[in-house]
TrEMBL record:
Location of region: Disordered: 390-422
Matching SMART domains: HNHc
Pfam family, one: DUF222
InterPro entries: DUF222, HNH_nuc
Keyword annotations: Endonuclease, Hydrolase, Nuclease
GO molecular function terms attached to this record: endonuclease activity
Domain of life: Bacteria
Domain HNH nuclease: 317-370
Taxonomic source organism: Actinomadura fulvescens
Listed name of the protein: HNH endonuclease signature motif containing protein
Length: 422
């Protein structure tokens, strides 16, 4: 095998990244050898190198996160940058961000990941476990989980250990206490909610027999499999059932059907759901007879609900129209649900340019609403043929860079396209 010799110690970080990118590009064009044994050996080497690259990537992400650089690009968080600009799925973006934030506290994991002696899977699993711990408990937790990994436990089993890391650390430190249910007794029901750093929470508690009967009677019917294709386990279905109860979805479900008044009075023109699915006119009328009807009145040209400059806050009726038009925030790449967004005056109420009229309003998450106000020169606004507004956050002045993770048949350089269009 031919060796390639280069003085890497004198190269800058940028030069090394360029070299790694060039090697990856060339390697991706090569065909795999015919030998299975050779492929296995090469795959193991490449996987180790990839894990080391993940260590370097974590360091870069950590700096981006610490300096809040993403906010200059119209992104509310580092995780949104990973998802929207680097093309990562939500779970992978969260995993990489957690690793980047926790590695400075994990000295052994950081060293072993950088040298290729610990895989990315183990490192990410340990980082996820210790994010719920304070600095005093982080080191013993790292020791416990690394020992489990060195003993041959799979990353999945190490993750299960991580789920009870508080108890393991307490036992390690000799400060374990009786379980909370034993200390509280079994007469009164109790539930504790502990928040995680990623916005989720952990539930733990005890229900007495009476409350258990209520819980079973409410959740059990909702936690049944939705069909033969429902591959969720009981725990996942129970969580979905609880969410449904908390949201009131077990009592009534609201379905928005959009239709012209003529359809309700006998015309054959179909209606449609919010996602564009057509609904036959006869079915629209049947739904209207068996369900509550909340009319959304439109004027000529399907332009509804004008309030002008006399009112700044959109009315409930206007908000219902906007939630029908927009599933998410109007900013491209932002996945904040529409019902959690704020009503935004497209041309800016403070400037006196945008009345509170439905064709001058859209939905925008709170963060992007404020960012749009403070960075108007970096927000490109377009209006589609169906009357919806689309916001696109532009990069800072003088910077053009293509987004990765997009198919080549789309814009070859979307950043440049955006700058030219602006």
């Amino acid at each position: 095998m031919r060796s390639i010799v280069a003085d890497l110690s004198s190269a800058s970080t940028a030069e090394l990244v360029e070299a790694a990118a060039a090697i990856a590009t060339e390697l991706a064009q090569r065909s795999a050898p015919d030998s299975g044994a050779a492929c296995m050996e090469l795959a193991e080497k490449l996987a180790s190198a990839t894990d080391q690259a993940e260590s370097a990537l974590a360091g870069l992400i950590a700096v981006v996160d610490r300096t809040a650089e993403t906010k200059h690009w119209g992104l509310p968080s580092t995780q949104a940058w990973l998802r929207c600009h680097l093309g990562m799925r939500e779970g992978r973006a969260k995993e990489r961000l957690t690793l980047a934030r926790q590695l400075p506290r994990l000295q052994q994991v950081s060293k072993q990941l950088a040298t290729g002696t610990l895989s990315y899977g183990y490192a990410a699993t340990i980082a996820d476990a210790v994010q719920r711990l304070g600095d005093d408990d982080c080191a013993p937790a790292e020791d416990i989980l690394l020992r489990a990994a060195s003993d041959g436990l799979s990353a999945g089993k190490v993750a299960r250990l991580g789920n009870k890391i508080h108890d393991l650390v307490a036992e390690h430190n000799g400060t374990s206490t009786p379980p909370e249910d034993a200390r509280r007794g079994y007469e009164r029901s109790w539930v504790t909610v502990s928040r995680s750093l990623d916005g989720g929470c952990y539930l733990k508690g005890w229900l007495n027999p009476e409350d258990t009967a209520i819980l079973d009677g409410t959740l059990a019917p909702l936690a049944k499999p939705a069909g033969t294709d429902d591959r969720r386990d009981l725990a996942e279905r129970t969580a979905a059932a609880l969410s449904s109860v908390l949201a009131g979805g077990h009592k009534a479900t609201r379905v928005t059907v959009i239709a012209d008044l003529e359809t309700l009075t006998g015309d054959d023109k179909p209606g449609w759901l919010r996602d564009g699915t057509p609904i036959p006119a006869e079915q629209v009328r049947r739904l209207a007879l068996t369900a509550g009807v909340s009319p959304l009145l439109f004027g000529p040209g399907h332009v509804p609900l004008y309030l002008g400059h006399t009112v700044r806050i959109a009315s409930p009726g206007q908000r219902r129209v906007l939630e029908t038009l927009y599933d998410t925030c109007a900013v491209q790449g932002c996945e904040t649900p529409g019902f959690l967004c704020e009503v935004d005056h497209v041309d800016g109420w403070a400037l006196g340019n945008s009345p509170t009229d439905i064709d001058k309003l859209t939905l925008c998450c709170g963060w992007h609403n404020r960012w749009k106000h403070t960075h108007p020169h970096q927000m490109q606004i377009t209006k589609t043929n169906d009357g919806r507004y689309t916001y696109r956050a532009l990069p800072p002045d003088g910077i053009t860079r293509p987004r990765r993770g997009r198919p080549p048949d789309q814009a070859a350089n979307p950043w440049q396209d955006e700058r030219l269009a602006a």
